[in-house]
Amino acid sequence: MRFIGKGIIVTGSNSGIGKATALLFAKEGANVLIHGRDLNSLEQTLEECKAVGLGTAKFAVVQGSFDNKDLIKKIHDTAVSEFGRIDVLVNNAGQAEIGSSLTTTEDSFDRQMHLLLKVPIFLSQMCFSHLKKSKGNIVNISSIAGIRASSRDSFSYAIAKAALNQFTQCAGIEYGAEGVRVNAVCPGYIRTNMGLKSESSVNNLAEANARYDEIAKAVPTKKVGTAEEAAKLIVFLASEDASMMNGACVVQDGGHSLMGLDNQTIENAAKCN
After folding, report:
1. What's the rounded Cα separation, in Å, for the pair 175 and 249?
2. In the chain, which residues have pLDDT < 50?
């Protein structure tokens, strides 16, 4: 157990990658702040964390949308009051909105920039003094969409994730000089609720799984990822086992970004298989 007694914040941790990450930190003995918008799924995640965590561990819950600008401070203040320290910040909260470079609206673009870029930057700033004191670190959850151009309808999302990678590297220099490592994970396709919602071509779970099976044919390893696989990498980066990793944007996509991300590549791969 590498995180006994440590205070961990995982935004967007009521489902998907965030939930898997919160559970893995709990298994490693950490105190974990869980955040999300849906109260029912938050309460379920809380119970699951308690079930796998230490009896002495503390778990805090913050419900709310980052549309509320006071939420950043609430998350920070709750972690400090409940745990007395912040050792790891995982900036995971996210949502993809559909729209290409020709169709994205200004409102949609602004929402994506706020949630996927501004929130990680300014929550990191707010937590910095505590992370410096604990010699802690930050893990940003980015995407392969931020490192490779695509013709898919995720323009604003991709721009925000590319900027998040740049923040990771810039902060790796500045925060790193103060003893706070900053890294990012860039997952490929993951079978999560957010992944399903981002697929505008599907209407139900069966169609979504069929779509993922189609996508997997364009991946060298012939698979898409799971939230649990992403969580293992996130927790590794947050641990002392990764003490020399700083400013890294680690791709975890089975080699998908080597092959191309656009629809034509995926369709061609499907035809060849």
Report:
1. 15
2. 200
Residues 256 and 262: their CA atoms lie apart, in Å, by 11
Question: 3-state SS string over 69-86?
Answer: CCHHHHHHHHHHHHHCCC
Q: Which residues pair with 34 in a beta bridge?
A: 10, 61
Average pLDDT, the chain: 92
What single string gives the DSSP state of each residue in 85-129? ---EEEE-------B-TTT--HHHHHHHHIIIIIHHHHHHHHHHH
- Phi and psi dihedrals of 215, rounded to 5? -60, -40
32, 18 in Cβ contact below 8 A? no
Pick the closest to residue 215 from 155, 256, 158 (CA basis). Answer: 256
Measured distance CA(17)–CA(24) in Å, rounded = 11
What is residue 1's predicted lDDT score, i.e. its pLDDT? 87
CB 79 within 8 A of CB 35: no
9: helix, coil or strand?
strand
**In 3D, which of 12, 69, 10 has the Cα closest to residue 41?**
12
Global pTM reads 0.92
Among this protein's residues, is 189 annotated catalytic? no
What is the fold of 7-191+225-255?
Rossmann fold (3.40.50)
Q: Which of 157, 175, 189, 212 is the catalytic position?
A: 157
